[in-house]
Amino acid sequence: MENGIQILPGQSWGIVGRNGSGKTTLAANLAEAYGGSLVSFELENELLEREIREDDSEFLDRIDFGRTVRELINEVCPVGAGLEDIALKLGLALLLEQGFLTLSTGERRRLMLARALIQSPELLVLDEPFDGLDQAFRDPLRSLLNGRDLILVANRLSDLEGLVSHLGCVENGVCVLAGDLDEVLANEAFQQLMGLEQEVVMLPKSVSNVIPNESLVIMKNVTVVHGGREIISSLNWEVERGQNWKISGPNGCGKSTLVNLVTGDHPQCYSNEVTVMGMRRGMGESIWDVKRFVGIVSPSLHQQYRVGANALEVIVSGFYDSVGIYQEVSPEHLETAKAWLDLVGMTPWSKRPFRSLSYGQQRLLLVARALVKQPPLLVLDEPCQGLDVMNRALVLRVIDRIASTGLTQILYITHEPEDRLECVTHELKHDGRGWVKS
Question: How far apart are CA 195 and CA 400, in angstroms?
Fold first, then answer.
């Protein structure tokens, strides 16, 4: 038994709880105690950091994109032991020779699942396996998981449907409720613990930015090729004042690449005709000229935020568009950051190092970092990834409140139908063949 949970043969368990409650730690402990195979964002980040650390581009006559998907799967199993089959089932068959560093967020998540599933473990321990996956791969994954002995950590109760027979609810690292799924869901204490009700959100005072009168984003005939793949082809797109866009489509279609062109975090923004806040990329503007108008949340930023900043400093860094703090902080910025820290319920952790917090707590801080200056343009790539039901509702309400002021426009990427923003007015969708505006 591990912290109130005993896994018996033939049982599948869901693990839920608020961000920072200890779900991921409990899952890792259960994997070790029962000899299970673990998949988590933390392990994915460890793999990413290894590939970055071992990047040999400076010693080669080409860019090192990291180990290929095939190599990374073969790393954990004998060569040929079901690789082609698992790659086909998880939509990786056409990516086997792609380097890890060229993969999208969803493709990396599927790779981590493939590495676990190909080992045919008796117990599979999955921490948020559906986060980052588009709808096309959710049903196939459910089919692969159905009937297995599972421990499934989830922030969305819908992810557990049909896959688990038992449920444990974690608080302060201990399972405080555990038992048959239906019995736990009906328990009043469970409803209170998960915080299913929210109060009205009051926004902290904003630090004003001058908003240009031009269209916020203009892309003309944009094409992006990365790792031998054409990610975006001849795209024309314009984001006008008053418009809030949802960007949707399957994993690998270029959604994150698209927003990275806007933020200047993709080098090919300078070889294309991309104009942001009235400034044409590559025409003498600095990256900071544009970023002062933009707030960003993305999986790539989360992976890059590896400095020793504490929770409060992470939010403060949003004023300076930096990873960490490298200048004197004004009293106004510090007080506003403290107000946002309080709004997202992280004040007790204000001095804790960012990397020591749970994945969900880290994501919550990065959301506050993007919102702290209430910028003219908010670029939100899967902002609710890793958030529990209470914090997810809070973040969506805050974003809608900011959009309702009319001072901020939204670019929003999500795979989750339930993570709806009321403020969305337009959609840019990849239908498998190309981009369609509506």
Answer: 20
> At which residue do the structure tokens 């908010």 appear?
378
Contact 119, 234 (CB under 8 A): no
DSSP states along 299-349: HHHHHH--S--BHHHHHHGGGTT-SS--SPPPHHHHHHHHHHHHHTT-GGG
With the C-alpha atoms ordered 318, 320, 325, 329, is the resulting torsion angle positive or negative?
negative
**pLDDT tens digits for 317-341?**
999 999 899 989 999 999 999 999 9
Determine contact, residues 392/382, Cβ cutoff 8 Å: no
What pLDDT digit, counting tens, does each position of 87-123 carry? 999 999 999 999 998 898 889 999 999 999 998 888 9
What single string gives the DSSP state of each residue in 140-172? HHHHHHTTS-EEEE-SSGGGGTTT-SEEEEEET
Q: Tokens for 333?
A: 């910025």
Q: What residues contact 188, with CB distance under 8 A and at least 6 apart?
A: none
CA torsion sign, 32 to 34 to 38 to 41?
negative
Name which of 95, 94, 89 is nearest 66 in CA terms.
95
Output the pTM of the full model: 0.78
